[in-house]
Amino acid sequence: MARTRYATDRGLIARMGATMFLLGLVFCAFILVLFFVLFEYQRRRAGAGGDNGSSTGLIVIAAVIGIGSAFASYYWSDKIALSASGARLVGPQDSPAAARLHGTVDRLCALADMPKPRVAIAPVQMPNAFATGRSSKVAVVCATQGLLDRLDPEELEGVLAHEMSHVAHKDVAVMTIASFLGIVAALLVRFAFYSELFGGGGRGRGGGGRGNSQGGAIPIILVVMVVGMVTYAVSFLLIRLLSRYRELSADRSGALLTGRPSALASALVKVTGDMARIPTRDLRAAEPLNAFYFAPAFSKRAGQFSMSSIFSTHPPLEKRLKELDKISQQLSR
């Protein structure tokens, strides 16, 4: 974690560590199963005299693309998020809203003893905010125009304190590492599916030893597909769990930094309530940035626990408010 005055939550850190450990176990199991599958495939090829390396090629291509995607996500997360949200970087002289945003960020940087990130405004009426960047030196914090119009100064400070804690805790790096396995597994499923759909079956109907060897690739590709699907499903759920812990940690760190958890709670209620009145079409357009946002742009039952909650990037509203209330009670003692 960066050396800032943002408070840490040992309980949440332990849970995030356990989640990362489970992801590591899934990754190890994934590699071992693929190694066994490839070993068996090579043994069959050696016995039948075949030379088809399609399964090996699928894994290599998926790994290369997965590494490339993770690299791009890590190094250019700020540019990707700004482009997707239509936001632009602003200076304190650009507008009254920009001056207010810069002033709030300046106060938080002084409180947290951290470098000032770049500041941006997204020209949309959906009230939300995000911060991203691989380090505090290249970070960017962005607020939508809707958020600036709706929140009072203390509420805005609470939201930005939450977002800047993601930068202080290097959450982009954490989530990039955690997502790598899911990316590779998802690519393997897709490549294996199209390999069988457009080529696997046809090769298997050929005659002779070579045809039989290639036909043996069909079940191997199916095994790779199933392994990839299971790995993706498990890693997806673990990553979403890690993301929810990350949001709770940012709530806690931001509330303790400002000393006003009630302001952050008020902002949460306002943002969630106002987004419920925004047309679903507009919310769905912003949904790809859910993992970055202060509050999810689209949630069928925001604030209520349901089975869909386990797939969410953010904890339910009620849970976030409950945790903030606990912090208020601790600070009042």
Write up this protein.
The protein is 69% helix and 5% strand. Mean pLDDT is 82; it is low at 201-215 and 301-305. Strands 1-2-4-3 form a 4-stranded mixed sheet, with helices on both faces. It starts with 9 loop residues before the first helix and ends with a helix. The protein has 12 helices and 4 strands; from the N terminus they run αααβαβββαααααααα. It has 333 residues and is mostly helical.
Low-confidence stretches: 201-215, 301-305
Question: What is the string of SSEs from the N terminus onward?
Answer: HHHEHEEEHHHHHHHH
End-to-end gap: 28 Å
Helical run tally: 12
Mean pLDDT: 82
**Lateral arrangement of strands in the main beta sheet:** 1-2-4-3
According to DSSP, the number of beta strands is 4
Class derived from helix and strand content: mainly alpha
Major beta sheet summary: 4 strands, mixed
The proportion of residues forming helix, as a percent range, comes to: 55-70%
Q: What is the percentage of strand-forming residues? A: under 5%
Over the alpha carbons, how many angstroms does the gyration radius reach? 24 Å
Question: What is the count of structural domains?
Answer: 1
Short recap of the structure:
The chain is mainly α and 333 residues long. The chain contains 12 helices and 4 strands, in the order αααβαβββαααααααα.
Features:
four-stranded mixed β-sheet; mainly alpha; 5% strand; single chain; 333 residues
Sequence-ordered SSE layout with sheet pairings:
Layout: H1 10-48, H2 54-75, H3 77-85, E1 88-89, H4 96-112, E2 118-122, E3 129-132, E4 140-144, H5 145-150, H6 153-168, H7 171-204, H8 208-215, H9 217-258, H10 261-275, H11 280-286, H12 317-332
